[in-house]
Amino acid sequence: MAKTTSTALALILALVAAPLMAQTTEEAPKTDEAAAADAAIADGLAMGQEVGAKDGPGSTYTVANFEAWEQRCVRTESGVDPCQLYLLLKDKDGNSVAEFTIFNLPKGTEGPAVAGATFIAPLETFLPGGMTLQIDDGKGKAYPFTFCAQIGCISRIGFTAEEIEAMKSGGNAKISIVPFVAPDERVELTMSLKGFTAGLEAVIAANDKADAAAVAAGAATGDAPATEGAAPAAP
Predict the structure, then answer these.
(1) Whether 104 contacts 114, CB under 8 Å
(2) Is 222 left (phi over 0), alpha (psi -120 to 50) or beta?
(3) Where are the beta strands (DSSP E) in the chain?
(4) What does the alpha-carbon distance between residue 18 and residue 77 come to, in Å, rounded to a whole number?
(5) Could you give the angle at which helices 7-16 and 196-221 cross, rounded to 10 degrees?
(6) Under DSSP, is residue 45 helix (H, G, I), strand (E, B) or coil?
(7) Rounded distance, CA 91 to CA 208, Å?
(8) For residues 96 and 76, is the Cβ–Cβ distance under 8 A?
(9) pLDDT, tens digit, 9 for 90 and up, residues 172-191
């Protein structure tokens, strides 16, 4: 069944990985920026053309911190920006190992999942071993990896309302992965849930505003909201 896909979800998923573009020997049509750069020539030397600023649409920034969690948002043209909750996972020696991001799904979404998450593990991960997540002393769940890119190997996860409530009331979650060099072992990472409730509520509030702004903009231009039938953003 069709369900509305929010601007927030599309932009957040786009953060994870961009499609790889194959190089070709054929000359591609020039963009407006390239054409402008070619025009800015003095004495046969191209002087360059300034392009998108670091704080322009599509760039990310941190809004607030909630204990170990960060509320990260994506700048949009409207200025009403969608967000996600981010956590950098470290091993027992304090080395950065993996990244975990979570965001709410649009209101009215049909299906058991009410939130989506992205877990990024190192490239040296044994993919058949998947990843497991256990909230406090509850039963763990196993999740597969979807694909690998330069940033790492990615698992896309859906959480039910009950699982989100367990995370809100929990103390810690344990994530385990299998290293490629030692497929008979598992590496455990502790995910603190302190600040999770406040952080997720802030993300939900921001994404509700972003969705409302997208709907209003669509109504103003006569564009219909995107549906599940449309191709989702990468990955």
Answers:
(1) yes
(2) left
(3) 41-42, 45-46, 60-66, 69-74, 83-90, 96-104, 115-121, 131-135, 141-143, 147-149, 152-159, 172-177, 187-192
(4) 20
(5) 120
(6) strand
(7) 34
(8) no
(9) 999 999 999 999 999 999 99
Does residue 9 carry a pLDDT above 60?
A: no
State both tokens at 10: 């599309």
Least confident among 23-32, 86-95, 114-123, 126-135: 23-32
Hey, is 25 helix, strand or coil?
Answer: coil
For the residues 128-155, what does the mean pLDDT come to? 95
Binning pLDDT at 50, 70 and 90, where does residue 7 land?
Answer: very low
Neighbour order of strands in the sheet with 83-90? 60-66, 69-74, 83-90, 96-104, 115-121, 152-159, 147-149
Least confident of 36-40, 47-51, 58-62, 110-114: 36-40
Lookup: tokens for 143: 């999740």
Is residue 119 predicted with pLDDT exceeding 80? yes
Residue among 133, 115, 8, 125 at smallest CA distance from 72: 8
What is the phi/psi pair of residue 218, to 5°?
Answer: -65, -40
Q: What is the pLDDT of residues 72-88, one digit of tens each?
A: 999 998 889 999 999 99
Taking the C-alpha atoms of residue 194 and residue 125, their distance in angstroms, rounded to an integer, is: 27
3-state SS class at 47: coil
- Structural domains of the chain sorted by starting position, each given as residue range(s) with its CATH number in brackets: 7-14+60-221 (2.60.40.1880)
